[in-house]
Amino acid sequence: MVLLIDWGNTRLKWMKIDHLELAQVRAAKVNITDNWQEHTEIWASPIEAIFIASVRNDQDNQALSGHLLNYCDRIHFAKTEQIACGVENSYSDPETMGVDRWMGVIAAAAPEENIAVVSIGSAITLDVIQSAQHMGGHIVPGRRLMLESLNTTGRVRPLMNTQDDESFHLGQTTNDCVNAGINSMIEGYLRHIINQTKIEYQVSRFIFAGGGGKYWQQRLNSGTDQMEYSESLVFEGLVKRYSV
Ligand SMILES: Nc1ncnc2c1ncn2[C@@H]1O[C@H](COP(=O)(O)OP(=O)(O)O)[C@@H](O)[C@H]1O
Ligand SMILES: CC(C)(COP(=O)(O)O)[C@@H](O)C(=O)NCCC(=O)O
């Protein structure tokens, strides 16, 4: 059994597969937790190897690997590279690019296709790939980070609405004003990058990922653009990178 881990700023995602094969990743269940220590099932069965894409700090990564070493001594933390699986990174200093983004880029890249990966998690990220060349991207604060940034005003102390706004509307409470406004910001940003990447980078395929990926892919998919949602994109990148 091989254990794959995608550790973002909010949640740890994990799956177990028999072999490093894309078909297995696509069929496997993605498990999600805010608190991995409580999930003994992660390491309950024998594990041959562990591949991790983590954007957490060294202390968190050491705590996780220190624990996992009790169950498996083949632990590999993926790193962002200049080139991998035929995909070239646009960063002048590739190691500074989040490994979750890089795994998404590796997973999405296809010869002779122009693709945008849009990940909607703690941060919202864009990565554009033209025929296996990473062209660059964006990083913007995600929904929670935008909302929490208003706490610094002292007066606006909003809470996240549990229900997603389905349409444009105006709030009549502080909370609703903030939530409706942030949703509009995300929608405006996403519509803008979809338009611009089509015009400027001839993007013809959009792959959404991350905790809000499914919601926004469904909401923005008018049927005219090729828009997909992938729950396992980072895992697919790990498999593509380490199955060679
Ligand atoms: N509809 C949505 N719109 C924007 N962001 C969302 C939505 N649903 C969930 N999220 C965000 O997704 C994040 C969790 O997604 P995830 O990809 O696991 O994040 P990370 O990889 O950063 O841990 C949360 O921070 C949450 O605010
Ligand atoms: C941009 C990110 C914070 C996104 O993380 P996430 O929302 O998936 O938790 C992460 O990819 C990261 O820490 N990147 C390093 C900076 C960069 O990619 O240039």
Automatic annotation (TrEMBL):
Belongs to the type III pantothenate kinase family. Catalyzes the phosphorylation of pantothenate (Pan), the first step in CoA biosynthesis. Pathway: Cofactor biosynthesis; coenzyme A biosynthesis; CoA from (R)-pantothenate: step 1/5. Substrate binds at Y91, G98, V99, D100, R101, T174. A monovalent cation. Ammonium or potassium. The lineage of its organism: Bacteria, Pseudomonadati, Pseudomonadota, Gammaproteobacteria, Oceanospirillales. Transmembrane segments: none annotated. It comes from Aliikangiella marina. GO terms for molecular function: ATP binding; pantothenate kinase activity. This is Type III pantothenate kinase.
